[in-house]
Design brief:
Layout lengths: L6 H6 L4 H12 L10 E7 L2 E7 L8 E6 L2 E6 L20 E6 L4 E9 L2 E8 L17 E2 L2 E2 L2
Antiparallel strand pairs: 1-2, 2-7, 3-4, 4-5, 6-7, 8-9
Length: 150
């Protein structure tokens, strides 16, 4: 396992703690982690994304989508089948799962749909007006709020 010391990053920056934490999580995660269920992440517009999770065999009632502390949590648990079936081959996995996605600041879940065995979750990035770039007008030698600027 690789260990990186990010303390120099903390000394030279202010307010970028989340990026360093994200790097720590990415480097600490196990490369052999579970890949079930498969999923896609696509960019649908400049500030819009879609996560598609393959959930074949699960009904809408058995699926759960939750946002908690900047994390999108998708989970499923198969209801008990009353009639016990005798499978000759069982290739469709319907085991319980929980998949987490870390959401960036100002990203919100716009909605979720379930169709054809796929769960689509639409995400939108909404940057507040106070954080958007703005142009500052330069006033040459005029009074601003009672103070003279030279």
């Amino acid at each position: 396992m690789r260990n990186f010391d990010l303390s120099p990053l903390y000394r030279a920056t202010v307010g970028f703690d989340q990026i360093a934490d994200l790097m720590d999580r990415a480097l600490a995660s196990d490369v052999s982690q579970n890949t079930y269920p498969p999923y896609n992440i696509e960019k649908t517009a400049d500030d819009a994304y879609r996560i598609t999770v393959a959930v074949a065999g699960f009904s809408e009632a058995e699926l759960s989508v939750e946002v908690k502390e900047n994390a999108l949590i998708i989970s499923a648990k198969k209801a008990k089948d009353e009639a016990e079936r005798n499978y000759l081959h069982r290739g469709i996995a319907t085991r319980a799962f929980e998949r987490r996605f870390h959401l960036a600041d100002h990203v919100r879940v716009a909605g979720a749909t379930h169709e054809d065995g796929l769960l689509h979750i639409d995400l939108v990035r909404e940057v507040p007006e106070t954080l958007k770039p703005r142009t500052i007008q330069i006033n040459g030698g005029k009074a601003i709020e009672g103070n003279t600027v030279n």
